[in-house]
Specification:
Keywords: Hydrolase. It holds the Pfam family HAD_2. This protein is an alpha/beta fold and 233 residues long. The protein has helices spanning 22-32, 40-47, 52-63, 69-89, 98-107, 120-130, 155-163, 179-187, 203-207, 220-231, and strands spanning 7-11, 17-18, 93-94, 111-116, 140-143, 172-176, 192-196, 213-215. The protein is built from ten helices and eight strands. Strand 6 (172-176), helix 8 and strand 7 form a beta-alpha-beta unit. Helix 1 (22-32) packs across helix 2 (40-47). The longest helix is centred in the middle third of the chain and has 21 residues, at 69-89. The model has no long low-confidence stretch (mean pLDDT 93).
Length: 233
């Protein structure tokens, strides 16, 4: 039975990777070193899923009415240094059932793509710590530094589709833990945009962007994909 779905694009932190929100905690720490007092919830609300310089700019403009691009860049450089230090000692784990779902997709000849608002260096550091390899656990990685425009623009998903000669988003599913993931998938024309409650945004926050599904565990994705196969049997 041929599956209608050819590719699933997964966000990393909070979706397939459990890193205890260290990225957003580090964003918060870096911003507050410059005399501000933003909360982690504020960072998550405005920054989740975004390329991290843009996340910093969004937090600053929304919560402290600061649009100084030079300051944002300075904070970003502090953030990059502190994140590298944090990742050097942090235990990073797969989200529950992530590897099992990757295997289930492989059995169904469905491509697994990871995409992220991280730069490539950070993303590859995470994958190395997890022991995940391209061509084994997943088929491709696309990062914020690989494309001209970041989420909610569809560039990262389109990049992956082009790489595997997939012409239509009607055979692609996007899975992510933030509102901007859902918007990205919708802008790419994905047949389904799926929110997951294991990361940055709550079920209630995810519901504000009307995803096609909201799941609590990645394993729920398998039955959703199989339903598309049944529809096209």
């Amino acid at each position: 039975m041929e599956n209608k779905i050819k590719m699933v694009v997964f966000d990393m932190a909070g979706t397939t990777v459990d890193e205890n929100n260290v990225v957003y905690k580090t964003v918060q720490k870096a911003i507050n070193q410059f005399g501000f007092d933003v909360t982690l919830d504020q960072v998550l609300e405005q920054g989740a899923g975004k390329e991290k310089l843009q996340a910093i700019k969004s937090v600053l403009s929304t919560y402290v009415d600061n649009t100084d691009a030079e300051l944002a860049e300075t904070i970003y450089q502090v953030f990059i240094g502190e994140l590298a230090e944090a990742y050097s000692t942090l235990e990073i784990l797969p989200q529950p059932n992530a590897v099992e779902v990757f295997s289930a997709l492989m059995e169904r000849n469905i491509l697994t793509v990871l995409n992220t608002g991280y730069n490539r260096e950070t993303a590859e550091t995470i994958l190395t710590k997890l022991g995940w390899e391209e061509g084994r656990e997943f088929d491709a990685l696309v990062t914020a530094t690989d494309v001209a425009k970041n989420r909610p623009n569809p560039d990262m998903i389109v990049y992956a589709m082009d790489d595997f000669s997939i012409e239509n988003g009607e055979s692609v599913i996007k899975v992510g833990d933030s509102i901007i993931d859902i918007e990205e998938g919708r802008n790419a024309g994905c047949i389904a945009c799926i929110g997951i409650t294991t990361g940055a945004h709550t079920r209630e926050q995810l519901e504000t962007t009307s995803p096609d599904y909201i799941i609590d565990n990645l394993i729920e994705l398998v039955s959703i994909i199989d339903a598309y196969s049944t529809e096209n049997a």
